[in-house]
Amino acid sequence: MTESGPEPWAAVDERLAVFAREDAALTAARTSPEVSAPGIEVSRQMGRFLNLLAAACGARRVLEFGTLAGYATIWLARAVGPGGRVVSIELDRDNAAVARKHLEDAGVSAWVDIHCGPAVDISGRLVEAGVEPFDLVFIDADKANLPTCVERSLELTRPGGLLVIDNVVRGGRILDPGDDAHVQGVVRALGALQGDDRVQVSVTQTVGEKGWDGFALVRKMA
Asked: How far is CA 188 from CA 1, 48, 151, 199, in A?
């Protein structure tokens, strides 16, 4: 906050919200106070970005790490439509229950599956089960174990598929992670991707109503 009010980038996001219009179900999911960590969902613009990205790449199968109240899940589910599938992984069963209600209110629950448990465990089971490959993966959870989540995602994604990894700048703390396990996980994951010839990677810094952060866009080559 500045002395005169909200930071200017938050005000700009408010002005640009016209490009990420929400209905009642989306607004309820974004502002839900019932989850374990209210306010950490993606921004409106990021939700719309995920929606457009999924639609643009023709995604029919989407994997999401971190359901929370289902805000990004709704955006993704609306992109794939009733002929597609969104599989979402959520650690907290109470969060999953809240998300299921929002998904029902949004009219997309029929093609969304929520698996409860640690991201590393659930993604490992999906690999072992040999599930049909995903077209798009959105990783927004368990940053301490991000290298494993990214590797599992690559195993679960078709050639040409995309991964979006959120919160990879973390207010610039990737320059000096200290003893923060979440930042350390991001740094390790980015380091592994840097030397991985299976992928193409772009990292974009962002600033807005969620502060200073960024996301990585990863394309699996083969």
From this structure: 32, 28, 12, 16
The total domain count for the chain is: 1
Domain that holds residue 90: 8-220
How is 119-133 classified by DSSP, letter by letter? HHHHHHHHHHHTPPP
* 15 lies in some domain: yes
Report the CATH number that the domain containing residue 148 is assigned in CATH: 3.40.50.150
For residue range 151-198, list pLDDT tens digits in order: 999 999 999 999 999 999 999 999 999 999 999 999 999 999 998 999
Nearest in space to 164 (alpha carbons), one of 36, 102, 75, 32: 75
Q: Could you report how far apart the first and last alpha carbons of the chain are, in Å?
A: 45
Bridge partner list, 112: 86
